[in-house]
Amino acid sequence: MRDPVAAYTLLSQLINITSKRQRALSCRYSTGGGNPRLMYAPVKEEVEWDEPRIIRYHGIISDREIEILKNISRPLLSRSLTFEGVSKIRTSQSVFLKEDKPVVSHFNQRIADITGLSMKSAEDLHVQNYGIGGRYEPHYDAWDDENERIATFLIYMSDVEIGGATVFPQVGVALKPKKGSAVFWYNLRKNGNVNWYTEHAGCPVLRGNKWVANKWIHEFGQEFRRPCSLSYWE
Fold first, then answer.
1. Residues paired with residue 167 on neighbouring β-strands, in sequence order
2. Please, are residues 42 and 29 in contact by the beta-carbon 8 Å criterion?
3. Strand order in the sheet with 200-202
4. How far is CA 232 from each of CA 144, 170, 194, 229, rounded to the nearest angstrom?
5. pTM for the structure as a whole
6. What is the mean pLDDT of residues 100-117?
7. Domain 29-218 in CATH: superfamily?
8. For this UniProt entry, which segments traverse the membrane (predicted)?
């Protein structure tokens, strides 16, 4: 846009719209829809964005649990892959952890309690480590395939001094890693289509070390937990 006045006006409008949307966001204690395991210990839930709906859960994993997961993962880490194999768009080390370890099984149950989704078709917990310069360029977790990744639960197992944010470029959202918290979003709309606003990236780590864990939850088993919609807009 060559007209500086028009550009400034548009920028002001976007900032105003973003500010209004952020003011409408909220925090609450959540029981995961009345889950018995959360009735006396509800989780702290913060809505980070409305479309796509991105929710951050605070304090869902302890420092002790984090250290156990790190210690299990360190000797098993290897270069992270994409569905195409080794890729230049992703620079990290990672490992999938099976449920045969009590801390992993316990945490998978916690994710199920919080989200209300079935873990039967979910992928194993995916622990990742990003060193200096580690990043993941813009991508989608869903690929419009059968038994697609309906949702993503991303756990932050460390703070990052500079860099390392999870960004959603389509909507202008940046989520800073906060140790012990997790963010959750649906990759698919209720009609089964990919929500293209869920494109996201991991910004380069400029100072520090970034540890995260992903739980990718799939469609099969969610039929009565997140009913489908025939609406094009849902």
1. 174, 201
2. yes
3. 136-139, 200-202, 166-168, 173-175
4. 16, 20, 12, 8
5. 0.88
6. 96
7. q2cbj1_9rhob like domain (2.60.120.620)
8. none
